[in-house]
Amino acid sequence: MGGQKRPKPSPWLANSPPNGGYVGPFRTNVRTFLEDYGTLKSPLRSSKHRQNSLYSRMWTVPLSFSQGSSSKKNLLDLYVFEQCMVLDTGVVVCDNCRVAGWNSHPVCNLTYHFIVPARKLELNWRAGESVVKAALLENQAHLLHGTLHANGFGHLLRVNGYEGGSLLLSGRQMMEVWTNLCTLLKARVVTVEDVSHKCGLPYRLLHSIAHKTTWYGKWGYSFCRGPFNITESKWKSAVSRLHSFPLSTFKNEVRKHGLQFIVSLSSYEEGGKTKLKTLGDLMSVLLHRANTTLMSAKGKQATANKITHTAKPKFKQTLVSNMEAANIKIDDFQFPACRWSDNRLKLAAYVVLNTLSASSSWMSRQDVRDAARHYIGDTGLLDFVLKVMGNQVIGGNMIRREFNSNTRVLEYKVEILRGEKALPIVLPGMNGQATPKAKSDLNPQNDLKLLYNALVHQLDAKSARSSSVPSWQRDVRLLLDTKQFEKNYYCEVESKSREPPTVMKNAIRLLVSVKLEDGIATPRGKSQGHSRAHKVAIPCEVLVLPESSTVRQLKEEISRAMKDLYTIFENFKVTDILSGIRASQISDQARLRDLKIDRFIVAKGVGISKNTLYYHVGGVEDWIVDCICGTKDDDGERMVECERCSRWVHTRCYGYPDSAPCPENFICSKCRKHHRRG
């Protein structure tokens, strides 16, 4: 597959897929896509566990895009890794499927990873496939990483724009890549865990307040599943209340609780068409201004990158000489052994010290990195220096590093020791000159943080009086807890209504599923009293057949599709059509065009595997969830097991914050109540 031909760049990076994409199901579309555009890069490794040959393989697909006003096309490599779940028996469980509520789906034979790396990857296949997969699949710095199982259900794992270290494309552009890719290949349903940040703050809260939807909502992602028994209606109500919260009431409560707030609030109304009346209005303006500032900084960085290499020694010389003139020396500080030279470590340490000295308040790790990257391009070097310098005395200054329980990020601050000289702000520009001050006194990033701090004030504090906590606290907590969102690309779901099939040119498009025997289930629960059947749910699959196909050919195609998709159907064969064909007697020789058929077909058959390991992509669970919040299944939040009834409950629902250690010898409220009665 891929051959020796030179692959042509995919023309649909920032545009809609040509001709609406392929017409078949995802499992066949992705193979055609790789044949058309991909170049095979990995050696083949066959599975000996199956009659069908399966492999773990990798392709690269060149993507074309334009940057700026230039008409010149640039190329970016998309890596596609085909992971064979039969070979990788240790990773048959998909945690993302489990949290999304798809844990009843059977394990697919293949999973496809679509990756756009931050920089060109150097993969050494001779070191072993496990080493390659670790470098490819576990890298947190990819600009894009999404997975799609063979049945078209998948997960968007990571999108990194400019704030995440991208030098080529923004987060919005990477989302266009992913959306067009899923549309082209006919993906079914895709989830995303929204843990994105803007200026170091959780974006799902900020964007929802400003625009009544998450950032991913721009591309059609909606509520999927909430922890702590949060429903879609509860989430929407909380979003609406915060968006329309009167700004005057908000400011009064902020003063009541003695919180610092935005001083130049009226300045944000200047030049605006409407007055800021609600919390949503203010959040929208702040996000717009903060994003404009970030994009402006990105443009300045791009201009600075065009400076010739001969200017860099002047920058380094100016920085080091200024630091040494201020009697700030780090020569005595010993860095651990690493791959960077002493001079590079020293320069990076100088930059970090000056960056922190420019602020009198705590700075998040991301903010320090963003500021320092204007002078040090190696983010790995910056991460290493920040890690080593934390809570260390350097040049007579203590570099404090603490974990902020509200924002859940690491923060840094310079503490000047007694008798020492304060650090001057001496960071020069890339041309050796002092960086000019901003013309405007507005600082939208800082004001955004002030607003966020007011929103999360006493978020998880225990108080007997409701008046001691802000009125918006419960809604803010609900939005922060809700992270799972999904997009149904074609809204094709099982339906009992007798809808006709989709008719294409000389072909029909059907949705098919398989009804399993009542005994096909796995037990859940440790004791017999708690055991309950956890049945396998087969998602409907797309079939495209010629109109002239017979019922026998329909059965054969369903059997072939199930074998192609799921491990438990290795020897499966359809015996009967249970529903979808309206006829008293169904002959195998009858042609579909001569029958009254529905869009959704249900079949049954024989030959299902007895190996329960592959029955559920969420794992063969032997425990049950029964929390006081109403949750009956694993939602991804931290839980603890009751010592008496073996039920699992949320630690937070029982008063243990996530930052506190997990309780030992825990007894749930039901068992305590039963014990008192006894």
From TrEMBL:
Q: Which InterPro entries match?
A: MS1-like_ubiquitin, WHD_PTC1, Zinc_finger_PHD-type_CS, Znf_FYVE_PHD, Znf_MS1-like, Znf_PHD, Znf_PHD-finger, Znf_RING/FYVE/PHD
Q: Which PROSITE patterns match?
A: ZF_PHD_1, ZF_PHD_2
- Gene3D superfamilies of this UniProt entry? Zinc/RING finger domain, C3HC4 (zinc finger)
Classify the source by domain of life. Answer: Eukaryota
Which positions fall inside the PHD-type domain? Answer: 624-674
Chain spans, region Disordered:
1-20
UniProtKB keywords: Metal-binding, Transcription, Transcription regulation, Zinc, Zinc-finger
- CDD domains reported in the protein's UniProt record: PHD_MMD1_like (cd15556)
Keyword NADP found: no
Q: Which GO terms describe its molecular function?
A: zinc ion binding
Q: What is this protein called?
A: PHD-type domain-containing protein
